[in-house]
Design a protein that fits this description.
Elements: E1 2-8, H1 14-27, E2 31-37, E3 48-51, H2 56-65, H3 68-77, E4 82-85, H4 87-92, E5 93-95, E6 107-112, E7 123-127, E8 136-140, E9 145-149, E10 153-158, E11 161-167, E12 170-173, H5 184-189, H6 191-195
Parallel strand pairs: 1-2, 1-3, 3-4, 4-12, 5-6
Antiparallel strand pairs: 6-9, 7-8, 10-11, 11-12
Length: 196
């Protein structure tokens, strides 16, 4: 089976997410056709979406300006999965704690941007993730902190703080799973969600 994976390509690790979703699909005996999303009209044709990191204020502005935001909301309303990483998590949150970010409210969490520090404070850590048998090696770069969790399920914590959550078909992470050779989180977010 072939799935159409859309990577929001206004900013962030677009090629890394594309490679990760192709690898995750192969691990589940599927094929992923990747489409880059820079304007409206592509999201409705996608089975799943990836929202990479970058600058959350810029991403949110471009998503609304290009009409992509409403398409993402409709995608989630249809029960189709989304993986949002780092700034993507901020953009999908209910409260970004920053009036410059017009967040979509698809994850019932509040976040604090760059809470783990600046670029020089980047770090890596093994995480126990609900749904994965072995620890996941996570890469944190200018990572947001998930401050409050409403109806979302916490999938992983670091130092007692949530760093991965799921609500319905949406998975959000503070870290960058696309920057490793371990594609299990992409598989968990998509193929195990789609096919049970």
């Amino acid at each position: 089976m072939t799935v159409t994976a859309g990577v929001v390509a206004v900013q962030g690790d677009v090629s890394e997410h594309a490679d990760a979703i192709r690898a995750a699909a192969l691990a589940h005996d599927e094929t992923a056709e990747v489409r880059e999303i820079r304007q409206s009209g592509i999201v409705p044709d996608c089975d799943l979406l990836l929202l990479p990191g970058g600058e959350s204020t810029t991403i949110s502005r471009l998503l609304h300006r290009e009409g992509i935001a409403q398409e993402i909301e409709a995608h989630v309303d249809d029960g189709k999965p989304v993986l949002a990483t780092c700034a993507g998590l901020i953009v999908l949150s209910a409260d970004a704690n920053d009036e410059r970010v017009d967040s979509l409210g698809l994850l019932d969490v509040s976040v604090e941007r760059n809470a783990f520090g600046r670029q020089k404070d980047s770090f890596e850590a093994p995480l126990d993730v609900t749904g994965l048998d072995d620890p996941f090696h996570a890469v944190f770069i200018r990572a947001p902190l998930i401050e409050d969790v409403g109806d979302a399920e916490v999938l992983a914590e670091w130092d007692g703080r949530p760093v991965a959550v799921r609500q319905g078909p949406v998975v959000g992470t503070s870290f960058h799973p696309e920057l490793t050779t371990d594609h299990r989180l992409h598989g968990l977010a998509f193929f195990e969600t789609v096919h049970g």
